[in-house]
Amino acid sequence: MTTSKRLSERKVAKFQKNITKRGLVPETTSKKGYDYPVGPIVLGFFVFVVIGSSLFQIIRTATSGGMA
Question: Any transmembrane segments, and where (predicted)?
């Protein structure tokens, strides 16, 4: 038996073994719960900037007579 034939038979056996496992995904790989992609500090800073800038814009518009 040549080396290439032995390697190809090993690959075929591995592939056939993998075929029988299709659809049997363990429960641990799926995500449970809600994990935010950003931390609470970054989220708080973002909310602070957005709300602060909108309040600043409202105050600026009110003090300039409504026309900016």
Answer: 38-59
Which structure tokens are listed for 40?
């609470």
The answer, yes or no, to whether residue 53 has pLDDT greater than 90, is yes
Distance CA 63, CA 7 (A): 80
The predicted model scores a pTM of 0.43
Amino acid at 58: I
DSSP codes of every residue in 3-36: HHHHHHHHHHHHHHHHHTTTT---GGGS--S---
